[in-house]
Design brief:
Porin, mainly beta, globular, 55% strand, 2 helices
Length: 343
């Protein structure tokens, strides 16, 4: 090898080292699979579930130090179906998250597809993290509106407060509808987390029909860690036209050796509508869920969960889908046991 080639290799190595010192890209993911049985009023379905403890996913994230306290970053995350090798995309490959961000002393500006502030304002206080048969969103109604913003937002611009505010955190998000009913959103969240305490409030609106009537959702959440047990609770109110749902969620997690016991109770109180939209005064429901997680390591865990929903009136919330669907006013229950590995 001649001197010019050696010099070129040395220069390339130097540039690569300089780049790697200023930026990084990480491959990450979760594979979660479980044996699950859904029983909807005697109609049973057995399946291999993919989200009992955490949702299965594959992603890439990267950050670059721009100097002067500025950082640029990206995050691409796709949902996976390990049961059949497919992509849980709902028509979107990077269904879970696709964002680019600029972060500095001012906070963070994030653009793309990501969770809404109102979603994290509830899910952060769910003992089951909105996963598996025990998740809180099994009791969440769209009240007859077209709402595509209950979890994630397309076309989102979200601003996050700086991380050094003594425990205070928050964000404000707007999402363009781009002509699609149910996508236009504005909302925010503010909270305080320090030591054993985490408390927050969130509020958001979505244009939920062709005349831009608003689906409104607001929540208050509280968590406190006593050491032997962590208590969680939230109250969420949803409104659309004359219809309303009040959702109360109470939960607890307790560490036991290398394991974690989880329990949750939820009650959905609906009113202001009719049985046709399952929003009449009698169309209420309650949920109980219990589970256990056994950590084999920091990345691998075994888990089991049981959940039961009791519906009233014309309500038909369910822990999982069956064919035929659950009749109005009947019970839905599910049990799952699985394995999760993260990397």
């Amino acid at each position: 090898m001649n001197r010019k080639s050696l010099l070129a290799l040395a220069l390339l190595a130097g540039f690569a080292n300089a780049a790697s010192a200023q930026s990084s890209v990480t491959l990450f993911g979760v594979i979660d699979a479980n044996l699950r049985q859904i029983d909807n009023n005697g109609v049973k379905v057995r399946q291999l579930g993919t989200d009992g403890l955490n949702s299965s996913r594959l992603g890439f994230r990267g950050v670059e130090d721009l100097g002067g306290g500025l950082k640029g970053s990206f995050w691409l995350e796709a949902g996976l179906n390990p049961d059949d090798g497919g992509i849980n995309s709902s028509g979107k490959f990077w269904h879970r998250r696709s964002t680019v961000s600029l972060e500095g002393g001012f906070g963070e500006i994030r653009l793309g597809r990501d969770y809404s502030p109102t979603y994290t304002g509830i899910s952060d206080f769910d003992a089951f993290g909105d996963n598996g048969v025990g998740k809180f969103s099994n009791l969440q109604s769209r009240l007859g509106g077209t709402v595509n913003t209950n979890s994630r937002l397309d076309n989102e611009v979200q601003y996050f407060l700086p991380k050094d505010l003594g425990g205070v955190y928050g964000s404000l998000a707007v999402a363009a509808g781009e002509g699609t009913v149910g996508n236009k959103y504005i909302g925010g969240r503010v909270g305080y987390a320090a030591g054993p305490l985490n408390v927050s409030g969130s509020y958001g609106t979505t244009d939920a029909n062709a005349t831009e009537d608003k689906y409104k959702i607001g929540s208050l959440g509280l968590a406190y860690n006593l050491g032997v047990v962590r208590l969680l609770g939230s109250f969420t109110q949803m409104k659309f036209l004359s219809r309303e749902e009040k959702l109360l969620l109470i939960g607890a997690t307790a560490p036991v050796g290398s394991g974690l016991i989880r329990a949750s109770f939820g009650r959905a109180d609906l009113s202001g509508g009719t049985g046709a939209t399952r929003t009449a005064d009698a169309d209420d429901a309650s949920l109980i869920a219990v589970g256990y997680v056994h950590n084999l390591s920091k990345r691998t865990a075994l888990y089991g969960t049981y959940s039961r929903i009791a519906n009233k009136g014309a309500q038909n919330f369910q822990v999982g889908a069956t064919t035929p669907t659950l009749p109005n006013g009947q019970k839905s229950q599910g049990i799952e046991a699985g394995l999760r590995h993260s990397f």
